Amino acid sequence: MTLPSALVGLLAVIVAVAAAGAMALLFAARRGSRRETQEIVRVLEEMRGGRPRGRLEIEPRSPYAPIADAANRLGQDLSVRWARTEAAGEAYHALQDAATGYGVVATDADGDLRIVSPGAVSLFGWEEEALVGRNVAMLFDEASWKDVLPKLARRSLRERGIESRGVMVRKDGTRFSARLTIRLLRGPSDDHPGFLVVVQDVSDQDRETTGKHRDEERAQDILEKLPGGVGVVQGGRIVSGNGALRALLEIESGELPGFALRDRVATGDVLVVQDALSAIERGDGPPRFEGTLRLRDAAGREGPKVSWLAIAHRHEGRAGALVVFRDETALGRAQGAVAAQEARLATILDTIDEAVVLVEDGPGGPRVRFANPAFAHLFGLAASSAAGATEGDLLRTLRDRGELGAAAAACLAAAEATTVEDVVTAGTRTVALAARPLGGPDGPVTGRLLLARDVTAQSARDAERARDTASLRRRLEAAETAQAKLRALHDDLASRRAEAERLNQELQRLDTMKSDLLANVSHELQTPLVSIRGYTEMILKGRLGPINDEQKQGLSLSLRNIDRLIAMIDNLLAFARMDRDGGAIDLRVFPPAAVADEALALLREKIEAKELRVTRTAADPALLVRADRDKILQVFVNLLSNAVKFNRDRGSIAIEFARGKPGFALVHVKDTGSGIAREDLEKIFDRFYQAGSRAGEGGKEGTGIGLAIVRNILRLHGCVIHATSTPGEGTIFSFTLPIAAEREAEPPRPVAVPDPEPPVAEDPPAHEAPERPRLRIIRR
Fold first, then answer.
1. Angstrom distances, CA of residue 698 to CA of 316, 455, 607, 635, 686
2. C-alpha pair distances (Å), 68 with each of 74, 77, 98
3. Is-contact 583 728, C-beta < 8 A?
4. Quick one: 385 exposed, middle or buried, by C-beta within 10 A (0-12, 13-18, 19+)?
5. Best label site of 69, 151, 247, 265, fewest CB within 10 Å?
6. DSSP character for 264?
7. 502: helix, coil or strand?
8. CA dist., res. 729 & res. 260, Å (int)
9. Closest CA to 359 of 279, 401, 413
10. Residue 473: which pLDDT band, with cuts at 50, 70 and 90?
11. d(Cα 51, Cα 478) in Å, to the nearest integer?
């Protein structure tokens, strides 16, 4: 350890005196005797050692006498100073030993440590040799050092001294809170050679202060949470109190300290309260007072009735009273509400089907607090005997009730900390049990609650639901199997569909070839037939020379067969043309009656041959239709040809026009022929079908495609046709045509009328045939 500055100064004085003595000795040596010189040297050597043991005796007449006198006085002063120095050193060391918990360090002007006290060594854990010469900043936490440095830089603070708090760092890196006292050191020449830093470890004090504050906050929090009003009263005035007291007295928080309690006490109770509080404070009465009083509000109106308790209490060294107020009015209302709630709860528990029993801990051990009728009924108990029974009696009684009661007792006994559940089947009954503790998890367990519910029906439903689920699962598997089969069938159908499409395309190609072949053959047959008919007709009419009756009869038969053959070829051509042209139509607006007249004109010869009576009636003479005129003419020709062909001689044909459904005209073609059997009516519009009755009566004269052509033409126009017939009386063909607006009407076309007498050709060329109306129309 380094010597203190006072001791260093004393040594400096001693050295100076020794130097002066040496000079005097040199002077004496020059002028005095050897003995005196040796005596002076001895004394000076003793002075240099710090402890002169005797006086210097020199003859008064000796020239060294003044030196001896000065040396003796110097020796006396040194003895006194040495004694003081030793006393100060002992006091310094005693002070260091007594300053437990303090560390003292001294630095030079640069802040490097020069002196380290034992307390500092113990406080920081460093050895003295390890600290001396290092900067004092190593003992500070970085933030605390940054806080101290600006203060040291301020001269006023530095000279006055700094009192501060900081965080210091030990050798092992741990930190502790410290109170710091920093002072400037003053040198012999009143300079400032460094700082003295006193460090006091206040960690324990901080912990105590923090703990004290927490205790105070906890106590204040508890006080604030008390349901009643609690406060301290001294001299009749409230010193402190909780929120409930402020609410009860209807005063603000800032008004509470110093508030006179009598200002909130009803007039009739003021004296009682003041006397009780004064007696408690003086200590000449009972230390405790308890009673009831009536409060009043700031306006003097009567307030709630409260019960109050006052006990002696010292606050900040002064006698006072701790008072507790409890609102009896609110308490009464709360107790009434609780009682009502308990009554409602009891009523509910009495009416529910679940069995409920409540066991609560009490002074005499756990007892049955509540058991509803369902519980008594389930376990065969008397409700009056269950309530109030001890838990042990209840458990024994339950165990005597068979398997179900034993299971319930086991659940109730096991519910000490957690909920215990069980499902018991006894006979035909299944009961679900649940027992749970009351209270906890942070508070104590105050009892247990057992619930028992008959779940027989629910179990049956669960079983049924399980069966349904299994059944559904099987059905689902069957459905998945069926789906797999359907997927396979779908794949097979897709394959077959592709094959069918391929075959259909092949059939379409063959049908096209058939239509083309039919059209070509029909066209090739038509040309020679026209020529044959023309010459046959001219021969029959005698234009190529006279013929006899027998020849005329044969030619007439040939001519009819030629006409039949031509008609068949015409239908085949029309049929082939429709197949080839598809749905192409040339829409025009025209009166349908004119087309019917044109068809009648084409068939006039046949009509006259059978002496048929033809009538045409139109309910609306201005009726116009919008259709392909040539195709509609084909419709009339085919229908009227059938009407003529299958009619009886001197029969009749009636054509009627009328308006049908909105947008359509309705046309009837009636004949008085042999009729059509019922079973044939639905088939006569099929291709190549010939009705039996007509075939039998008239022979299979046609191709069976005339009505099929009619239906296809009408379908192209969005129209329909149907037939009604009475065998032996005639047939009625009814079909629709689309009506056109009048403004769409076009000029009527002239009706093609055949010449009354066909021209007779002497020798017509083979490529030129006589002109016939039918052939001319079909060719358009």
1. 143, 89, 16, 21, 19
2. 10, 14, 45
3. no
4. middle
5. 247
6. G
7. helix
8. 131
9. 413
10. very high
11. 125
pLDDT computed for residue 584 by the predictor: 78
3-state SS string for 398-444: HHCCHHHHHHHHHHHHHCCCCCEEEEEEECCEEEEEEEEEEECCCCC
What 120-124 contacts at long range (C-beta under 8 Å, 24+ apart), as own/partner pairs, is 120/199, 123/168, 123/170, 123/199, 123/201, 124/168, 124/169, 124/170, 124/171
DSSP class of residue 744 equals: G
φ/ψ of residue 682, rounded to 5? -80, -10
CA distance 541 to 432: 117
Q: Is the peptide bond before 441 cis (omega within 30 degrees of 0)?
A: yes
Q: Which residues contact 583 (CB under 8 A, 6 or more apart)?
A: 716
Q: What is the rounded distance in angstroms from the CA atom of residue 120 to the CA atom of residue 100? A: 10
CA distances from 423 to 396, 403, 453, 454 (A): 20, 12, 9, 10
Phi, psi of 702 (to 5 degrees): -105, -175
Q: The whole model's pTM is what?
A: 0.34
For 162-171, 376-385, 608-617, which range has the lowest pLDDT when averaged over its residues?
Answer: 376-385
Q: Of 148, 175, 176, 180, give the one whose Cα is nearest residue 165.
A: 180
CB crowding 548-559: b at 16 or more within 10 Å, else e: eeeeeeebeebb
Distances (CA, A) of 64 to 29, 32, 314, 515: 10, 7, 82, 176
Alpha-carbon span 234 to 220, nearest angstrom = 19
CA 614 to mean position of chain CA atoms: 86
- Alpha carbon distance 243, 253 (integer Å): 8
Please choose, from the candidates 569, 566, 575, 570, the residue with its C-alpha nearest in 3D space to the C-alpha of residue 514. 575
pLDDT score, position 361: 84
Amino acid at 430: T
Beta-carbon contacts of 673 under 8 Å, excluding residues fewer than 6 positions away, are: 643, 646, 647, 648, 651, 694, 730, 731
Asked if residue 408 lies in contact with residue 450, where contact means CB atoms within 8 angstroms, the answer is yes
260/237 Cα distance (integer angstroms): 4
pLDDT at 10: 64
Q: For 585-631, what is each residue's pLDDT tens digit?
A: 889 999 999 999 999 998 888 899 899 999 999 888 888 999 999 89
Summary count for the chain: helices (H), strands (E): 24, 23
288-296 β-sheet, strand order: 259-260, 237-241, 229-234, 318-327, 302-315, 288-296
What is the reported pLDDT for 583? 67
Using the Cα atoms of residue 230, residue 236, residue 239 and residue 243 in order, give the sign of their dihedral. positive
Element (H, E) at 200: strand 194-201
**pLDDT tens digits for 193-241?**
788 899 988 888 888 888 888 888 887 788 777 778 888 898 889 988 8
Number of other CB atoms surrounding residue 41 within 10 Å? 15
Asked whether 371 and 381 are in contact (CB, 8 A), the reply is yes
- H or E element, residue 671: strand 664-671
